[in-house]
Design a protein that fits this description.
This protein has helices at 13-23, 38-48, 64-75, 90-100, 115-127, and strands at residues 4-9, 29-35, 52-56, 81-85, 104-108. The protein is of the alpha/beta class.
Length: 128
Amino acid sequence: MTKIRILIAHNDENVRKTIVDSVNTLDYVEVVGTAKDGVETYNKIIDLKPEVVFTKYNYSNMPGLELMRKTKEKLKEHFPSFNTIGQIPENELKEAISITGEKLNAFVRQPYDGEAVEIMKAYKEYNG
């Protein structure tokens, strides 16, 4: 069985670890990497090409829209499913959706409350 490759990105090490530990309980998920800021997140998305990304929306070194836009420009049809940790500001939501289309799937509350496991279960069910 091919595992769903995911990247976990957040500037708080405890948040990253909590999400990694929780999704590692799923036998069909492989955490291929973690990142601590926007630039590292972008570089790891490009290098590792995960199917799913859990990421903080805005980093000081790369705003959320820029991360999504640059990723879309570089990867085109291999654009991953984005799940943002924390909500996208209302004034940016329409543009985020226009960049990601159906690949913007969920908002993970902060502090993290176990949504990543539920999101991955739904992702597996929806994507076979």
